[in-house]
Prior knowledge:
- This protein has helices spanning 2-77, 115-125; strands at 81-85, 88-92, 98-103, 128-130.
- By secondary structure, it is of the alpha+beta class.
- It has one domain.
- A 4-stranded antiparallel sheet has the order 3-2-1-4.
- β1 (81-85) and β2 form a beta hairpin.
- The longest helix is centred in the N-terminal third of the chain and has 76 residues, at 2-77.
- The radius of gyration is 34 Å and the shape is rod-shaped.
Amino acid sequence: MQDLLSLTNLLITLALIAGAFAAYHYGFARTADEVKARVISVMQHEIDTLKDRLAALEKENLRLSQIIGAIRLALQQRGLHITIDGELVCIHDQSGGCSQTSRIIAQAAPAPAASTADSAATAAHHRHEEV
């Protein structure tokens, strides 16, 4: 009879250990899933924010390109032609001579109010145009 009680006690102890291990594993997996879901949610929000910012910057870039085009057209009608080659901007008069040459200088940390001017300099830096 005592062997039967010892065997039962051993089986109950092993069952408790197995149950505790299963509960720990389940709790750990559930916690990991919750953390993963929160991280995915935060990252999705960040992606949405970046998409909105990209769309706003594309609109601003288009607007600045249109402004540059209007300025170039107005100057061309007055006999001045502008050439933008990387960081170098040349203004040619009707005789064909380069009357003014300037280099675009990138600023280290643009202020929010000055971002429009910096965007124009950056946009001009990335293209080579001639009217």
